[in-house]
Amino acid sequence: MLTPAVRVVAHLLAGFLVLVAPLLAYRNAHRPHAAAPGARLRRYRWLVLRQLILIAVLVAWIATSGVARAQVGLGPPLSWWWSGGASIAVAAFMLWSAVALRRRAPELRDKMRHRAGALLLPETNREARWFALVSLCGGVAEELGYRGFLFYYALTWWPSLSPLELVLATSVCFGIAHLYQGWRGVAATTIAGVLMGALYVASGNLLLPIVAHIMGNMRAAVIFWTPAAARA
Q1: Global pTM?
Q2: Within a 10 A sphere around the Cβ of 195, how many other Cβ atoms?
Q3: How many other CB atoms are found less than 10 A from the CB of residue 74?
Q4: What's the CA gap between 21 and 9, in Å, rounded?
Q5: 151 half-sphere exposure, CB direction, 13 A CA radius
Q6: Alpha-helix runs per DSSP H in the chain
Q7: Strand runs (DSSP E) across 2-141, as ranges?
Q8: Which of 98, 126, 132, 173 is in Cβ range 3.0-4.6 Å of 222 for a Cys bridge?
Q9: Which residue segment(s) compose the domain that 223 sits in?
Q10: For residues 148 and 85, what is the distance between their CA atoms, to the nearest angstrom?
């Protein structure tokens, strides 16, 4: 049984994930100087800080709420062999696909140039390193928030929801959180959310969706990395 204080914090966390986070991301992406020199690095640092704070708050809430870890995806998976093997396979595929796309990096960058999400794409190796850190922190924070916490939150107040309904509802919230990328970005991230949600339901643990999320985001750092020989 959740105490009143724990319930209030849960409502605040849900409100942040569903309402505040999309507005903050949209506002940050559409600032007048979002494309100015150095703006991308500042944005990466801000994102990492926000993600680390969100992770800390979620972990603190879980630790003090009395909620079982398994209810928020932090318990053991249904099968360590399946989850571990699938995680390795997903990571290997994402890395292979990113390396394969490196030769098309200029073409891909040009295609995305007019999208709001293009402001996040790294243009230097220093930016690529920060982008990798953003991908790492973002994968953990967003899966813990939009899959682990929101699944639990939704089931607590709407216990009749089926796994499919949970996956769809949380995926829509996840897609809206990427509103700054435009409606194509919302559609793409909603679909990605459905895939992450399905992996969570199938494995019973956040390990597999976190690995898939991190590696999916980190592909850009690999694709746009410039070798030392090419920089000389």
Answers
A1: 0.91
A2: 15
A3: 16
A4: 16
A5: 29
A6: 4-15, 21-29, 39-65, 80-101, 105-111, 125-142, 150-157, 163-176, 182-203, 207-223, 228-231
A7: none
A8: 98
A9: 4-231
A10: 21
Residue whose structure tokens are 């916490």: 149
Question: Would you tell me the crossing angle of helices 207-223 and 182-203 to the nearest 10 degrees?
Answer: 140
| Helices 182-203 and 163-176, axial angle in degrees (round to 10) | 150
Give the C-alpha separation, 36 to 34, whole Å.
6
Q: In this structure, what token pair is assigned to residue 143?
A: 């899966």
Number of domains the chain contains:
1
Per-residue pLDDT of the chain (232 residues; tens, 9 = 90+): 688 899 999 999 999 999 999 998 888 776 655 556 578 888 899 999 999 999 999 999 999 999 999 999 999 999 999 999 999 999 999 999 999 989 888 887 777 766 655 667 788 888 889 999 999 999 999 999 999 999 999 999 999 999 999 999 999 999 999 988 888 889 999 999 999 999 999 999 999 999 999 999 999 889 888 765 444 4
Residue owning tokens 């809430």:
61
Task: HSE, CB side, 13 Å, CA atoms: give it for residue 6.
Answer: 14
What is the distance between the alpha carbons of residues 162 and 14, in angstroms, rounded to a whole number? 19
